[in-house]
């Protein structure tokens, strides 16, 4: 608890291993990104405290992460409106990051925080990187395995904003027919099982609207150059009936400036 304001806060404690080691690069990245990013759907870094061999990052407090929220729901809970709102808010945050040329690179339920008012906030920028032009070489040992975009799994070291879109959307096997040039990636193997690609709509028809399925398909395009962007997601027909008046970023669609 913040003794000055009386508000609950979240504390991330980082142990500094030795005098010569310095502050871990993940902590430096997180502090650097969150000092630049000011958006109501991105967790706020309140304070940084150094104390002997420990570093404390003080964040605003949210009740739980998305994984915990989903696990807490009763079996027959109707998720349509909630899913729509959460997806829109997450894409507002990611669109804001991408417009400031920052990749999150570790999107997963545990890094999306939820409060009791239905607000979702993007957290944990320890693996975030600035996008350079021309696109530079990055490591592909990022993003929790189950949420990695195919270009990362197959060893591509020049990737961009599409990796975050895939993670939000998260299957079949990519080939030259649906991703030109994929066979040239270092970790591609022609012996991969040829999983079929046409099952998404038939499997989800009973649970999702046509617009929702169409959006998901565009988010999960194998070829990252064909994948929908965060800004395009925000104006997709799937969100036409979403009431944005109660959202913390309101009608932000990637064209409004939110810095304050």
TrEMBL record:
The keyword Nucleotide-binding applies. Signal peptide: none annotated. Keywords: ATP-binding, Cell cycle, Cell division, Kinase, Mitosis, Nucleotide-binding, Nucleus, Phosphoprotein, Serine/threonine-protein kinase, Transferase. GO terms for cellular component: nucleus. It is found in: Nucleus. PANTHER family: CELL DIVISION PROTEIN KINASE, CYCLIN-DEPENDENT KINASE 1. Belongs to the protein kinase superfamily. CMGC Ser/Thr protein kinase family. CDC2/CDKX subfamily. This is Protein kinase domain-containing protein. It comes from Toxocara canis (Canine roundworm).
């Amino acid at each position: 608890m913040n003794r000055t304001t009386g508000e609950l806060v979240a504390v991330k404690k980082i142990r500094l291993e030795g005098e010569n080691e310095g502050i871990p690069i993940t902590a430096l990245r997180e502090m650097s990104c969150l000092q630049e990013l000011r958006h109501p759907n991105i967790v706020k870094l309140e304070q940084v405290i150094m104390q002997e061999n420990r570093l404390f990052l003080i964040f605003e407090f949210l009740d739980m992460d998305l994984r915990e929220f989903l696990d807490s729901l009763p079996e027959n809970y109707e998720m349509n409106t909630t899913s729509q709102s959460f997806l829109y808010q997450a894409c507002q945050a990611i669109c804001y990051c991408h417009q400031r040329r920052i990749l999150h690179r570790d999107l997963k339920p545990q890094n999306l925080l939820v409060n009791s008012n239905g607000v979702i906030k993007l957290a944990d920028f320890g693996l975030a990187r600035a996008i350079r032009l021309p696109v530079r070489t990055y490591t592909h040992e990022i993003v929790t395995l189950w949420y990695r975009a195919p270009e990362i799994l197959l060893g591509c070291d020049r990737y961009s904003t599409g990796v975050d879109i895939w993670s939000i959307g998260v299957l079949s096997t990519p080939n030259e027919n649906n991703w030109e040039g994929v066979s040239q990636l270092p970790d591609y193997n022609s012996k991969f099982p040829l999983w079929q690609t046409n099952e998404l709509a038939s499997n989800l028809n009973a649970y999702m609207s046509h617009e929702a399925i169409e959006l998901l398909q565009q988010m999960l395009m194998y070829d990252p150059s064909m994948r929908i962007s965060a800004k395009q997601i925000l104006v997709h027909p799937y969100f036409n009936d979403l009431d944005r008046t109660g959202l913390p970023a309101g009608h932000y669609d990637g064209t409004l400036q939110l810095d304050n």
